[in-house]
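step: validate -> pass
step: tokenize input -> pass
step: predict -> running
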Amino acid sequence: MKIKAMAVIKITISCLIFFNSINTCFAADFPSTYEKSSEKVKFDCELEIPKDFSETEMYSEKTKGRIYPDMDKTISIYTQGKEVKENGTIPAASSEDPEGVYYVFTDGSTLSVDSSFTYGSDTAKYYGYIGVRDPQYKERFEQQTVSFMDKNTVIEKVSSDLENIGIDTTDISWDAYPLNHEAMSQLENEQISDGLDMEEHRKESWTEEDDAYFVYGVQMSQKLPVFHELMNTSRQLAYDTPDSSVIQAIYSKRGVEILSYSGYMYKFDVSDQKINFLAFDDIASVVFDKFNNLLNESTYKITRAKLYERVFLNEAQQMEVSPVWYFEILQDDDTTSITLVDAVSGEFERLSLGSKVLILLKWNN
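step: predict -> pass
step: emit ->
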């Protein structure tokens, strides 16, 4: 009888472990799409999660500091063969950041390096005047082509340039789109005509020599994109658009026009403690209920849901790392706002200081 009783106990315990494992697995098994609607709120989007990401193999982590460019290497490479017109020092942004230097060269190019890095050619300003990195022009440029080099080769060159100054690009997710000279000329004409740019900024002519790619890179950690500190503190950089990327470059037929690294990539220390994600239905309900209960006449459509690994300063001004769901909400088919929800607790996250408060950031479409 004792043997039978022990057998029953073992079977019962095994069943409990089995069913608990199933429940845990289901809780973390994110759907590919999500739909839910009321008269006020419509949830209709695909979940943006990297294909090779496994929600059951995610571990808590912390930062061991930021990744800085090698100043000596940077100065050596980007001042070589240049005649200096002006140079000076850049004060350290904090006690943890290095003091920097800047250079203006007689050929019109510029260099600055501290915790970040930016190099610009003498023709870089023309790409800047017309705002080729503005996300509203991305679709327009993607419809055009350039022939001087293929996208992957350009990305490899940008990656190599960063490796040469001490920036490890192993965990970077890259993308790029072409900047066709005819499309840029047309955009310049439109902006000057509409008063968005000045006639004195007009380039004498746009030719095939100006054809380029806008290359951008996002740091990945445990196969998730990193929502870096600047995205928490800057309204312009909070959106998931190419111009919020930590690495940005414009590479033309002439070579590098602009190469910049924001200084907000991190050295991560991954623990052995697994992350227990909240089921997406629970996360989605938090967002859905929040907007559904607003006492106004507006309607809301959740158009994007993307999983990030977020790095931010908490209320004690200490660095924290945690997974977060990024949502874009379209209000009255007119303005778009961002909502962040902690992927573990289901609490709203503020875009500054990490307190549990919802903040909306809007732009006009």
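step: describe -> Residues 1-27, 353-365 have pLDDT under 50 and may be disordered.
step: cleanup -> pass
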